[in-house]
Amino acid sequence: MKSTFDKNAEKFVNLMVEKIESLSMNWQKPWFSKVNSKQNFLPQNLTGRTYSGGNAFLLYFLCEKYNYQTPVFLTFNQARNEGINVLKGAVAFPVYYTLFCAYHRQTNEKISYDEYNKLSEEEQKEYRLAAYTKYFQVFNLDQTNFAEKYPNRWDILKAKFSGEEQPQEEKEMYVNPILDEMNKNQNWVCPIQTVSSDSAFYSISNDSITLPLKSQFKDGESFYGTELHEMGHSTGVKNRLNRKGFYENDKFNYGREELVAELISALSGVYLGISVTVREENAAYLKSWCKAIKEEPKFLFTVLADAIKGSKFIAQHLNIRVDVGEVEEEKNTKVA
Question: Which residues form the N-terminal domain (predicted)?
Answer without folding.
Answer: 7-139
